[in-house]
Amino acid sequence: MRKTLPVLAALALVALPALASAQETTEHVTKTLKLDPGGTLRLKSFSGPIHITVSDRPEAVIDAVRYGTRERLNRITLDIHEDGSNTVVIDANRRDRTWFEFSGRDNVVKTDFEIKVPRRTNLDISVFSAPVTVDGVEGTFKAHGFSSRLEFQDVTGPIQAHTFSGSIAIRAKTWQPNQSIDIDTFSGNVDLHVPENAQGSVFFKSFSGHLDSERPLVLRDGNRQSLRADLGNGGANSGSLRFKTFSGSVKIDK
User: Fold this and answer.
1) Is residue 149 a part of any domain in this protein?
2) Rounded distance between C-alpha atoms, residue 203 and residue 105, angstroms
3) 7 part of a folded domain
4) What would the pLDDT profile of 53-103 be if each residue is shown by its tens digit?
């Protein structure tokens, strides 16, 4: 037994550095790239909150905090680069196609983003469980998520958003001619606010969800699960509101 103790002590000394290297750490990344008004920001991430706001400068300022073991942070990188004319691309989980992708190892890094863009910027966002908040941006919006909440506050421009179980909240600041809002969810609920001058066709289709509107709607045809209605007085430049869900419900508020 006495001979065993030194051996155990030696094994413990070897295990301590390995344990320390397996502990999670953080990595702070800040990068600024040129982005003129009217440009596009493409963002792809897995988890970690994303907050996008506006500035008066012709640039995208990305402030990111990454969480993971040192080995994982080295293996899975944060890729931020310019792509073509007036486009910034962010990939929170860039990695080479190696055998790691086909092993049982964790292949994503949780990344928190604070991003500033010019007020007129088009956004193309793809996430899994990362909650997204966009505040004050004017442009064209495309967002795809799985279980993440997608929130657009005081935005201007057409919106196309798709989620599986995540909720969607939209507060449109202005209503443009031919404005369109296109929402597709499975079980996620939708909360929409449009300005008083909003007008257009409303299309709603759901298996078990329902549509509730605090704004007057003129029913054209359909029933509780599938209907077509008009918001406002309509007209040549009126827009469209399209909602498709399985069990998610939609609320249009004042």
Assistant:
1) no
2) 44
3) no
4) 999 999 999 999 999 999 999 999 999 999 988 999 999 999 865 544 544
